[in-house]
Design brief:
With 372 residues, the chain is α/β, with parallel strands linked by helices. It contains 18 helices and 13 strands.
Length: 372
């Protein structure tokens, strides 16, 4: 039996991805364990039919309120200790997210409770980016604050699991390529890559579009967004995230959410369905060692993208042409001005995105777990 551990996310965090892991695994497993914060469990349960929920043993845990403090190592150790009987009855343990302190907590637990007959899988999200950041002194400096000290121990904590029945899972092929060239010679771990799992929705693609609507989703770049709207003040635009500013009120056709709480999945879905093109302002080397969840949202909802050249997005665009790559912000502004061309490209791009979406949906978890 597989046991999934979500040691970071609450509420809707990573919920589409974790649902993807659950649904794919249940295609060949009769029952699984899922351990997470109660708010995350409830989020997943609401999106799964009762027939699927019956196949899942849910266990609630209390995550540290301030996970970045070093004392959280002890908190995570106690979490693993409380799960001892559950972990004892499983042969595959999957950490759906991790960082330094919970890895060290797990290592302490295993010192007292050796598990040589079990296999551990560590799902890599943004944590590998720290390894890349720490190679640059300019980036290194931002992690010297006490709040971020756990970042400095990223490499050490991962190396604790370099030998034995431990495997790290990269959620895109471009990560594997970059890891080998930028990090691999300094960190010897067992890894493999796969397409990111995701609970995709059945979405009908649009045909022709008349009046284009643009938007951003995820963390984005508010300064770059503001420059786009300064150049095109009457653009129909939606900022699909919670922001703590009213600076966009001067743009009559821009919708945004000035609130502290993150948007609900229902709000995100309602807004993204209205958008025709999504804009991405990632720097070229961002997502070098991770997968953009916001990109997978675009793929899910069949939304063509306009983006700055980027390690992650460019990789998928080169495979399927799912959007329009721009050299810089000036180039992006020019592309947005060419609305006639954007309308002509729209049907072709959405068709390509649908092909990529189908490719993502064909993940073979049988191979991932080496199960025959």
């Amino acid at each position: 039996m597989e046991t999934f551990l979500e040691l970071e996310c609450k509420g809707i965090g990573h919920e589409k991805i974790n649902l993807g892991f659950i649904l794919n695994t249940l295609e060949f497993s009769k029952k699984i364990n899922f351990i997470a914060d109660q708010s995350h469990i409830e989020t997943l349960q609401r999106q799964l039919p009762e027939s699927i929920n019956k196949k899942i043993n849910y266990y609630s845990i209390e995550l540290p309120k301030k996970h970045y403090k070093i004392l959280s190592i002890w908190h995570y150790f106690k979490i693993f200790k409380s799960l001892k009987s559950i972990l004892k009855e499983t042969d595959k343990i999957i950490l759906l997210s991790f960082f330094s302190w919970n890895l060290i907590g797990l290592k302490l637990f295993l010192l007292f409770n050796p598990s040589r007959d079990k296999r551990f899988f560590f799902i890599c999200h943004g944590v590998l980016e720290f390894l890349y950041d720490l190679k640059s002194f300019k980036r290194f400096k931002k992690y010297l604050k006490s709040k971020n000290i756990h970042v400095l121990l990223t490499k050490l904590s991962i190396s604790l699991f370099s030998k034995g029945n431990f495997q790290f899972i990269f959620l895109s092929k471009h990560i594997e390529k970059n890891f080998r060239s930028k990090i691999g010679n300094t960190l010897n771990i067992d890894f493999r890559s796969m397409l990111i799992p995701y609970k995709f929705d059945e979405i009908s693609k649009k045909g022709k579009v008349e009046n284009l609507t643009f938007g951003t989703i995820g963390k984005g770049d508010l300064n770059a967004t503001f420059k786009v709207l300064e150049k095109h003040p009457n653009l129909d635009f939606s900022i699909i995230r919670a922001i703590d500013t009213n600076r966009f009120t001067s743009f009559p056709n821009c919708k945004f959410f000035n609130q502290k709480n993150r948007l609900t999945r229902e709000q995100i879905e309602e807004e993204i369905k209205k958008v025709d093109y999504l804009l991405y302002f990632y720097s070229e080397d961002s997502y070098t060692l991770s997968m953009s969840g916001a990109l997978v949202d675009a793929i899910n909802y069949l939304k063509p993208i306009i983006f700055l050249k980027n390690e992650c997005i460019s990789y998928y665009n080169n495979l399927y042409e799912i959007g329009i790559e721009c050299k810089d912000l000036k180039d992006m502004l020019q592309k947005i001005s060419s609305q006639k061309q954007l309308k002509m490209n729209y049907p072709i791009l959405t068709e390509n995105i649908e092909k990529l979406k189908n490719k993502f949906s064909q993940n073979d978890f049988n191979l991932l777990w080496n199960k025959t």
